[in-house]
Structure formats: structure tokens, C-alpha cells
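2 proteins. here.
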Amino acid sequence: MGHGSGKAKEVPQAIRKGIEAAKKNLIRVNLTETSIPHLVLGRYGAGQVLLKPAPEGTGVIAGGAVRAVMTSAGVQNVLTKSLGSPNPHNVVKATFAALLQLRDKADVATMRGKTVEEM
């Protein structure tokens, strides 16, 4: 999953440039079955996004830009709160910053020098 923006005189050219920029910023997102593994706060500029795991059946509780990112990432159950700037560019980048902070159990176990069963 990635994000990008493009500018051109014609709309199709701008879309094409945005897609090319997004392909250069691809990231891998650590998820549990249908939600995120833990609470995380992403920041970019004056925009802040809080992502909180939710139980099965909750759905994506998010506003415009955050909802688009969460659904395209494949997250089905998450609670979010957009804090600070409502600028959609900063909100999207803050959401990506939050998604980059997500860790799965195997990563945390190796950082601590333990096995997954010990955690």
C-alpha cells in the first residue's frame, strides 16, 4: 500500500503521476486477522491520527481520508480519531506513519530476545 500525489494540466495525467508516486512509497502493514495489533498514534506536520484495535463486527470507524487508507489496507475493524490539522494530505501521511509503527508478536519477541510462546 502506498500514497502519492501528482500535478498536471489534465486529470488523467495527474492520476497517472499520482499512481507512479504511490508505487514508489509502498509499505507492508502488520495486521491481526481483521484489525490492528495495538493502539498507535501517527504524526505528520500538524496532523495526528490515533488508531485503536476494535473487536470483530465493529467495522471501520473513521473519517474521510483515514477511512480510505484503512479500507485499502484491508483493515476491517478499527477505531480512529483524527487530531490536529484536517488537511487531507497531512492526515493521510499521519495514517501511514501510524501504520509503519505497527509491530507483530514475532517482531516484538525477537527484539526482546524471547520466543513467541514466552510472550
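next one coming up
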Amino acid sequence: MTNMLSLLGFTLVMAVGQLLFKKVGLDLRGVPLETGVTRVLANPALYAALALYGAATLLWIWLLSRVPLSRAYPYMALGVVLVPLASMLVFGERVRPGFWLGIALIVAGIVVTQIGTAPNQP
């Protein structure tokens, strides 16, 4: 159970990092390339996103020392579900109807790959 919660936490941290990267990108709208680099480097959201990615990388390494990659990696796909859903709420983005079918397939795939897998299998 602890490993599963850690995997979910990892996915959540990565998703928040993606939302912060999107915020940095939105702050660049209409900005010329010459000043865009300076604006990106001055944006605190960039450093927050990079810090989250660094922390998530360390968590991922720790998780892989305890969970088989074949069991851990499907949780990466959960980010494909979380990020667009969060972007709808945070940024008002719209998703196409086919997205909902894709979400269902991803969630079903995660459930199928996790059924019958020993929780702490090396």
C-alpha cells in the first residue's frame, strides 16, 4: 500500500510540474524570442517546476529500488489523465470527446496491469 501511495504521489508531483511549465509557457504569449528567454529565467514557476521534477526524479529512483519497473511504469500513464483534467480546471482548456474514451482505456490499462501483482515484488 505504501508503494502504491508513493507511486500516486510521484504521478501527482509530475502533474503539478507540468502545470507549472504550462504557466511559464502562458506567460510567454506574445513575447518576442529575444526577451522570452529572460522572462522564462525570471519566472519563479520555472524554478518550482524544476524543483518538483528533481524531487520526483529522486522519488522515482527510490521507488524503483522497491517496486519492479513493470509495476511502477504504468503510473506514468496516469499523468496523461491527470494533467489534461487539471488543465481544464486551472487553465480552462477544453478536451475533445475522444479524450474521455482515452482516459477510460488508460485507467483500465493501469487496473489490468496492477491486478495480481505482488505489492513488494522485487
